[in-house]
Design goal:
244 residues; 2 domains; 4-stranded antiparallel β-sheet; binds adenosine-5'-triphosphate; binds magnesium ion
Length: 244
């Protein structure tokens, strides 16, 4: 059974067709890259998956349950984690405190699994190589480091499906490498990742499968190599090929 199934997910706002019949399945442990030109509907699709926008038509199933009408909070509780861009980081608090408030907010069963919270905080920071900055204020971090902190917090939240929207935007090459390593760690732990990225070489490196969208619809899907060589991708980014 697929962990995530979308069927005919369609979103029309004021006669604008923003998502058109999006249908795909994701297996547990897969890393899927969602690509497409600006305005093709990638972030909107994440908004539908995390429950911020109800689709006009179609269904979303997660672990076999129909979650189409679930609220963002309900989705978060059943294991869907969305990493926002530098959102939810308290800049005036230290890194340690930032992680602690996130862990303290977990449901009790999940918190108990973590054991000693102070140790869990440090383990979380170590995961993304930020432990030496534990006592620094989050506001002093670079954009890339903040992104890692945000990913690390979501990572520890007992989620099973991660939605990452442009995690490497504005991030240094070294930090991009850290994000790639982090995603591999997620996969090794059986987690499922959906990642929106404009950096195609990055997508090719870390993804099992790529879904390319244009104008709110899926135009091509396959392994990174298949998609890279597809006529659809070339047309999407460079316009129609006059020789065909
Ligand atoms: N709530 C909304 N109301 C009206 N139009 C919207 C809404 N949300 C998104 N759109 C429109 O839907 C289209 C898709 O936008 P979206 O942000 O999903 O694209 P994207 O693929 O994430 O682009 P980018 O790569 O630039 O981030 C755009 O034309 C946008 O203006
Ligand atoms: Mg977007």
């Amino acid at each position: 059974m697929s962990i995530l199934s979308l069927r005919d997910v369609t979103l029309t706002i004021e006669q604008q067709h923003i998502l058109r019949g999006v249908t795909f399945d994701v297996e547990q442990g897969e890393v899927i890259g969602l690509i497409g030109p600006n305005g093709s509907g990638k972030t909107t699709l994440f908004n539908v998956l995390s429950g911020f926008l109800p689709p006009t038509r179609g269904t979303v199933h997660f672990k076999g349950a129909d979650i189409t009408r679930f609220s963002p909070t309900e989705r978060s509780r059943i294991g869907i984690g969305r990493v926002f861009q530098n959102f939810g980081i308290f800049r005036e608090m230290t890194l340690e405190e930032n992680v602690l408030v996130a862990l303290e907010a977990l449901p009790r069963e999940q918190r108990e699994v973590l054991g000693d919270l102070r140790k869990a905080v440090h383990a979380t920071l170590a995961l993304v190589g930020l432990e030496q900055h534990a006592k620094r204020k989050a506001g002093a971090l670079s954009g890339g480091q903040m992104r890692l902190l945000e990913i690390a917090r979501t990572l520890k939240s007992g989620k099973e499906l991660f939605l990452l929207d442009e995690p490497t935007a504005g991030v240094s090459p070294k930090m991009t490498q850290d994000v790639a390593t982090l995603i591999r760690t997620l996969k090794e732990n059986g987690k499922t990742v959906l990642i929106v990225e404009h950096d195609l070489p990055f997508i090719a490196r870390i993804c099992d499968r790529v879904i390319a969208m244009d104008l709110g619809a899926i135009v091509v899907t396959g392994t990174p190599a298949q998609v890279k060589q597809s006529k659809e991708l070339r047309e999407m980014y460079f316009g129609a090929d006059p020789t065909t």
